[in-house]
Amino acid sequence: MRPYILLTPGPLTTTDSVKQTMMADWCTWDEDYNLGIVEEVRHGLVELATSHTDEYTAILMQGSGTYCVEAVIGSAVKPDADKLLILSNGAYGDRMGHIAEYHGLRYDLMAFDETEQVSVEDVDDYLAHNPEITHVAIVHCETTTGILNPLKDVAHVVKMYGKRLIVDAMSSFGGVPLDVWDLGADFLISSANKCIQGVPGFGFIIARRSELERCQGVSRSLSLDIYDQWKTMEQGHGKWRFTSPTHVVRAFKQAMEELKEEGGVEARHQRYCENHRVLVEGMRSLGFETLLPDAIQSPIITSFLYPHAGFDFKDFYAQLKAQGFVIYPGKISQADTFRIGNIGDVHPDDFRRLIEAVRGCRY
Question: What pLDDT does 277 receive?
Answer without folding.
Answer: 98
